[in-house]
User: Fold Transmembrane protein 101 from Mizuhopecten yessoensis.
Amino acid sequence: MLVVDTSYKIFRQLVQKFHTDEFLTLGIPISSRKMATSWLNAAPEFLLARFPFINALSLLMLLGERAQQETHPPIHPNVIYANVAVFLTCGFLLSGKVMRKELSLVCAGQMLFFAYNMYTNTYLHYSQWQRMRMSIRHLGCSGMFILYSHLQDKSGSSQLRRLGEIIVGLYLIGITYILNNSAEDKRAFLSHIVGGDWSRYFYTLILACAALSFFSGYFLRDMSVSMIILLTLSTLFVDCDFTFWTNRRGMHLWNQIRIVLDDICLILGFTMLTVGFDNRVKTKND
Assistant:
């Protein structure tokens, strides 16, 4: 009994020690944990707020790369100047935490415009699979900016949330379609990811489950974590092989860079959702 009593006292002392304000489990200070959690909450939003700057720069670099082979720009110069000006304005104001809800919706609208333009503009002279690769990622970024606007909305508008979720769901369906129906993307995946078709089937299954999750509004946090992992792997091992895409598949270098940047934007967006969203829809309005 003496041994039991002694063990129990030691156990209670350890529990009390690790539940004080100075210690967390494994001896990590609670203040450090709060700092890390705060940084994790702020980092995706901080980077997304600066993404319009990156969009403006990459757009100009892409048009500059194409200008070496073209006599007329594929997009009217006034449209280019206007979009660059809006990107820069949104970037400065979002970085200053001014009108984040409204300006993130402006960014979402711009991404929708470029998604439409990249797919329908015949003056760009892109093949079908190239147009799909670019436009579907722009669509996904648009959905992320709408969800970012929802998180900045103090009233918690359910309409913004549902719209953003549906657009992200459409992006996931589009990526699933491209992976299985575009010969170029299928070949790129199989040549860079181990496991062959079985890996592609598994990837497709996760994408389809994520799409259903966003369409329904359930389990968003879990599926966002899954998408962070899958997108990070595919971005690093497939999309970042610039030699493969530019030399062997005829993509412009800055086109491929923009695709990678869109992937990073989507990864940041899914990271934001893991922090800001719950796994289930808690109310009927959501």
Notes: The chain has one domain: 38-276. Residues 147 and 164 are 5 Å apart (CA to CA). Residues 14-28 have pLDDT under 50 and may be disordered. The chain is about 80% helix and 0% strand.
